[in-house]
């Protein structure tokens, strides 16, 4: 997912009229360098709230990025 697509998704989820996520609680993880960064971010997000929505926009393994 490109940074523009990620920003667009975050904007849609936090839209003041139609969004479902408080902008202060929307976290974006862009281009993590290692798998543990993803795990750490998920742990921190889940442990910081009573409810969480996670969206995974990672392409499947073996599918080239375009």
Describe the structure.
With 66 residues, the protein is mainly α. The protein is 36% helix and 0% strand. The protein has 2 helices and no strands. The protein has helices at 3-13, 35-47.
How do you describe this structure in short?
The chain is an all-alpha fold and 66 residues long. The chain is 36% helix and 0% strand. The protein has 2 helices and no strands.
Mean pLDDT: 79
Derived from helix and strand composition plus strand pairing, the structural class reads mainly alpha
| Percent of residues in helices | 25-40%
Q: What's the oligomerization state?
A: single chain
H/E element sequence: HH
Kindly state the number of beta strands: 0
- Spans where pLDDT lies below 50 across 5 or more residues: none
Specify the overall morphology. flat
DSSP summary: helix tally? 2
Percentage of residues in strands? under 5%
The gyration radius over C-alpha positions equals 13 Å
Termini separation: 9 Å
Q: What's the main sheet like?
A: none
Please describe the topology of this protein.
Layout (H helix, E strand, L loop, with lengths): L2 H11 L21 H13 L19
Core attributes:
66 residues; mainly alpha; 2 helices
């Amino acid at each position: 997912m490109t940074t523009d697509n990620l920003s667009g998704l975050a904007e849609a989820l936090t839209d003041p009229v139609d969004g479902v996520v408080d902008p202060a609680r929307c976290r974006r993880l862009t281009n993590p360098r290692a798998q543990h960064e993803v795990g750490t971010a998920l742990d921190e997000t889940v442990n910081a709230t009573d409810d969480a929505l996670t969206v995974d926009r990672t392409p499947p393994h073996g599918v080239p990025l375009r």
